[in-house]
Specification:
By secondary structure, the protein is of the alpha/beta class. It has two domains: 182 residues, Medium-chain alcohol dehydrogenases, catalytic domain (Quinone Oxidoreductase, Chain A, domain 1), CATH 3.90.180.10; 119 residues, Rossmann fold (3-Layer(aba) Sandwich). The protein contains ten helices and 18 strands.
């Protein structure tokens, strides 16, 4: 089968298509024929440095596809089932491939109203937002929740999940993304380039920080007593808790984990229309380096997706979506990425 490999750490150019043996599912695993795989900033981190494991490993965690074979002991799925998930994270999964094995309980049935491209875009960002807002911060109706980089992959999903939990949502985003973020449910949006967010937003209960660096300490200044900052950017953010504690505040650094309960919650929210994923760019597997170039620019609205199966990019929101183009849900192909 075809997969994506690399021989050394580096930029997008180190990625290449390789031929490897198709894997077989072990006990409690399924073999998935991959239709689509999401591209995430953590993929670039692992490509460039090895990430947390500091070793070259197969890239990719998001997957949407069809079960081809089940291993011993699997009762949740059968061959032919359409599934999606984020297997094995934070350990290597290797979803940038035509086939991948995954623990059955790291997956959920793909909602029928999502294409494989949309489902492949969703797991990592949705589980990250769910585990930050629900499992870590326990967001409740009426609370004020601040989402940084609200037009990005995690951010645009976090806005919707916070809204579904009944929160009043504050957001930071570039001005050209304000209408998009409001459509997702944000109640107030500011441009972080022209407005000092810690002066604009006060009495916040929960902050989801996808940026890191100075954003963590600055976000503490927005909180009311007992409020929490959930940092997602870097393990170095764990030290923020020591700063927060004497102030009567909380700060936690979080790494998203494979989680069937979370996947079922995300699938249900998507199936009932409470969560949609914005697919910015769809790229074929053999142009993965171009997808990483777009991702590394950090200006993507929503998600980038690798179309692995030949027909995976054919439908997004019921409309034609040529593989290798930039697009918005429900919109036409945009010229920016036509030449990927």
């Amino acid at each position: 089968m075809r997969a994506i490999g690399q021989d050394t750490f580096g930029g997008p150019e180190v990625l290449r298509v390789i031929e490897v043996d198709k894997p077989s599912p072990g006990p409690a695993e399924v073999l998935i024929r991959v239709h689509a795989a999401g591209v995430n900033p953590t993929d670039s981190w692992h490509r460039g440095t090895g990430g947390l494991v500091e070793a070259i490993a197969p890239l990719g965690w998001d997957v949407s596809g069809v079960v081809e074979e089940v291993g011993p002991g699997v009762t949740l799925f059968a061959p032919g089932d359409e599934v999606f998930g984020m297997p094995r994270h934070p350990h290597a999964a290797g979803t940038y491939a035509e086939y991948v094995t995954a623990p059955a309980r790291h997956l959920a049935h793909k909602p029928a109203n999502l294409s494989h491209v949309e489902a492949g875009a969703l797991p990592l960002v949705a589980l990250t937002a769910w585990q930050a807002l629900v499992d870590t911060a326990d967001v409740r109706p009426g609370q004020r929740v601040l989402i940084h980089a609200a037009a990005g992959g995690v951010g645009h999903v976090a806005v919707q999940i916070a809204k579904a939990r009944g929160a009043y949502v504050l957001a930071t985003a570039r001005t050209d993304n304000h209408d998009f973020v409001r459509e997702l449910g944000a109640d107030e949006v500011i441009d972080y380039r022209t407005t000092v967010f810690e002066e604009a937003f006060r009495d916040v209960d929960v902050v989801v920080d996808t940026i890191g660096g100075e954003y963590g300490p600055r976000s503490l200044r927005t909180l009311r007593p007992g409020g929490i900052v959930v940092s997602l950017a870097s393990p170095a953010e764990a030290a923020l808790g020591e700063v927060a504690r004497p102030l009567g505040l909380r700060a936690r650094f979080m790494i998203v984990e494979a989680d069937r309960a979370g996947m079922l919650a995300v699938a249900d929210l998507a199936a009932t229309g409470g969560l949609r994923v914005h697919v910015d760019t769809v790229v074929p597997l053999d142009l993965v380096s171009k997808a990483h170039e777009v991702s590394d620019n950090q200006r993507t609205r929503g998600k980038i997706v690798l179309a692995v199966a030949e027909d995976a990019g054919a439908q997004v929101d019921g409309r034609s979506a040529p593989v290798g183009c930039s697009r918005s849900n429900g919109g036409q192909a945009a010229p920016r990425a036509q030449n990927l």
